[in-house]
């Protein structure tokens, strides 16, 4: 698990048309069932599992971060989730993905939010991705790109695309 996927850690080789992920300083080998530190990743790219202190996360954390990066590029809104601190980061995510989905995720993994955080999060309906499409980005927000974002930005890390699935299914 890289655990710090963000634009500054992606190098582009234009000549060979390749991307390289750099800065593996926070990386760890994944071992099923092991608990990991949640104080990793840069705020705007932190997966919900980190923001709710779920310590037995996995490599799907990096796919969430990819989804944040890709959403920022496609919708021309960088960072896509712009929280002022970790609590606000979860609020920003909930305002897009909805709180019903967040509560289902929390219930599935038996996670209780800190009461202060729960109050901050409040209640929000899921926003359709079309709300983020405008005159400046509609040429980028093709259905395949939006579907790819939707499959990466899932609260439940077990529901996100794997890296292999992302490479096979996306032709963006």
Automatic annotation (TrEMBL):
Q: Which reaction equation describes what this protein catalyses?
A: L-seryl-[protein] + ATP = O-phospho-L-seryl-[protein] + ADP + H(+); L-threonyl-[protein] + ATP = O-phospho-L-threonyl-[protein] + ADP + H(+)
- Keyword set includes tRNA processing: no
Q: What is its EC number?
A: 2.7.11.1
Recorded hits in Gene3D superfamilies, A to Z, give: Transferase(Phosphotransferase) domain 1
Keywords for this entry? ATP-binding, Kinase, Nucleotide-binding, Serine/threonine-protein kinase, Transferase
InterPro entries, per this entry? CK2_alpha, Kinase-like_dom_sf, Prot_kinase_dom
**Has keyword Transmembrane helix?**
no
Q: Which domain of life is it from?
A: Eukaryota
Write down the SUPFAM superfamilies for this protein, in alphabetical order: Protein kinase-like (PK-like)
Q: Which GO terms describe its cellular component?
A: cytosol; nucleus; protein kinase CK2 complex
* GO MF entry, a single one: ATP binding
- Tell me the Gene Ontology biological-process terms attached to this UniProt entry: regulation of cell cycle
Limits of the Protein kinase domain: 1-172
What is the protein named? non-specific serine/threonine protein kinase
Q: What is the species listed in this Swiss-Prot or TrEMBL entry?
A: Rhizophora mucronata (Asiatic mangrove)
